[in-house]
Amino acid sequence: MRKLTLILFVLVLYSGCNRVDQYDSPEQMVQEALKVVKTISVDELNKLMDSEEVYTLIDVRQKSEHYYGFIPGSLVIPRGSLEFLIGKEEYWEEEGLYMPLKDEKIILYDKKGNRGIMAASSLMQFGYKNVYTLDGGWKKWELKYPDLTEKDLDMLSGGGEEDNADAGGC
């Protein structure tokens, strides 16, 4: 009887270790991530930008989206490269910035919010503890603070460097 109990216990334990959540839609996946991901409002970010608090603001949209308009002080690291670059010290040195530590405040944004939520979830899985996503993303920021935006249209016409070929991904 003890042997049977032990075998059942091991089977239950093993089956729990290999569990992978499955979702019916991307929206369901985002909603699940929102259970653990913290959000910051555009008003809170605006106040933070006026404060002395240290934070890193990352735009997880594609570079071409970023150049059409972005929040001042943000660094573009596309969603598909974020996990490969966030802890790569050489990348941060090339950007002339300090690599964020795992307990420092990181704020992510995208166009409307969903990519930012998923990116924040990924960073949390890497052990970053103070990660936020901008509620409503770039669009909400642009509507509320149209005078606090920047563009870099020169980059779209081939006037600057593009993508990190060694950033990872498929």
Architecture overview:
α2 (26-33) packs across α7. The model has no long low-confidence stretch (mean pLDDT 85). It contains 9 helices and 5 strands. It is α/β, with parallel strands linked by helices and 170 residues long. It has helices at 2-17, 26-33, 42-50, 63-68, 79-85, 89-95, 114-125, 137-144, 153-156; strands spanning 38-40, 55-59, 75-76, 105-109, 131-134. It is globular and about 75 Å long.
The CATH architecture can be given as: 3-Layer(aba) Sandwich
Number of helices, where a helix is a run of at least 4 consecutive DSSP H or I residues = 9
How do the SSEs run, as a string of H and E?
HHEHEHEHHEHEHH
**Whole-number average pLDDT?**
85
Number of strands: 5
> What gyration radius follows from the Cα positions, in whole Å?
20 Å
Give structural attributes.
single chain, 170 residues, alpha/beta, Oxidized Rhodanese, domain 1, 5-stranded parallel sheet, 9 helices, 5 strands, 45% helix
SSE map:
Blueprint: H1 2-17, H2 26-33, E1 38-40, H3 42-50, E2 55-59, H4 63-68, E3 75-76, H5 79-85, H6 89-95, E4 105-109, H7 114-125, E5 131-134, H8 137-144, H9 153-156
Parallel strand pairs: 1-5, 2-3, 2-4, 4-5
Helix pairs in contact: 2-7
Offer a concise description of the structure.
The protein has helices at 2-17, 26-33, 42-50, 63-68, 79-85, 89-95, 114-125, 137-144, 153-156, and strands at residues 38-40, 55-59, 75-76, 105-109, 131-134.
